[in-house]
Amino acid sequence: MIELRQLRYFVTIVDAGSLTRAAELLYVAQPALSQQLAALESNVNAKLLNRSSKGIKPTEAGLAMYKHAQAVLKLVADTKGVVRTPEAGVSGRVRLGIPATIAGILIAPLVDYLRDTRPGIILEVYENPSSYLAPQLLEQRVDLSLLVDSIPGSGLIASPLLSENLYFVHHRDNHPLGKPTDVTLDEIQNIPLVLPTRSTTLRQLIDNAFNARGIEPTVVAETSSMQTLLTLVAHSSVGTFQTIAAVRSHKDGRKLIASLIQPLMVRRLFLAYSKYAALSDAAVQVHAVIMDLAKNLVTAGHWPGAILQTNHAMIN
Question: Homologous superfamily of 85-162+268-315 in CATH?
Answer without folding.
Answer: Periplasmic binding protein-like II (3.40.190.10)
